[in-house]
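# nightly structure sweep
# worker-07 picked up a monomer target from the shared queue
# config: single-sequence mode, recycle default, output format = structure tokens
# input follows
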Amino acid sequence: MNLHPLTLFFFLFSATVLPGCGSGEDGGNSGARSEKYEIAVIPKGTSHEFWKSVHSGARKAECELPISITWMGPSKEDDRIAQIEVVDNFISKGVDGIVISPLDDTALVPVLKEAKAEGIPVVIVDSGVNWDEYASFVATDNRQGGVVAAQHLGKLLDGKGKVIMMRYFEGSASTSKREVGFLETIAEDFPEIEVVSGNQFGGATSDECYQTAENLLINHQDIDGIFCACEPTTFGMLRALQDSDLAGKVRFVGFDATDKLLDGLRAGEIDGLVLQDPFGMGELAVKRMVDHLDGKPVDKFVDTGVNVATQENVDTDEMRALWSVDFDKWLK
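# output follows
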């Protein structure tokens, strides 16, 4: 097989450079089994902080259980070929289980079916897929994430005005469900709010999303509110608002938390960030895989929750637990 260059790079890197457990962890790995399970953890991409949090959670599970994980994924979240080839590589390697966030809800189905046919169970994390033969699905209730975003933005606008929603990219199941939840809730609960643009895809990177956001702001200069459904779209829109001197003047609700997004929230340039629990997703997904391999019953769906961070509550202990991850501890 001729490997996609990015796939080859990440495969070689991941196979040879494995970070140790965080300080204060003994690497545990003290279980009844004499051999470790080999588990592949495959994110949608590797360039966003969200995935560093998922990776950190997976590493915590590795430090507490008799397992070995290998983390590998494409750099861009629209590289379907690279992610498929990553799965193929792990099937050939004969790992005990695959934990994956499919970057396309349809394109990944054939290779996941192949994994199952080869006796390798699959746990889905974060983003769904049009296939139900996985062992467990660990994620935010993504539609509910869009619902709470719409409710928050609708209240900020007193139920009136014009809004835009910038989508992520086609085929991303998690963000698609958030977008659907947002649009349906606005239509049902806030009939005097008009969505003047809700079908523009931003792109797979924050730079692409920034360019799309610039065009949206030029074409819709009389908007009152904005919703973006993930980290790259939120950051791209924040940059565009700042550059057009609209930051803080247009009500803006986004998704996920990075240092720059949190700074924007504290500065009043973002009015709300819908927070997931990516660290918890990574940890729970790996642990559900281990339970499944051990023959224990596992829930088909595990909801890791959703919350809205605001300028007033972002630094509370409850919210800090969702966005403050010690990457140096888990990923060094």
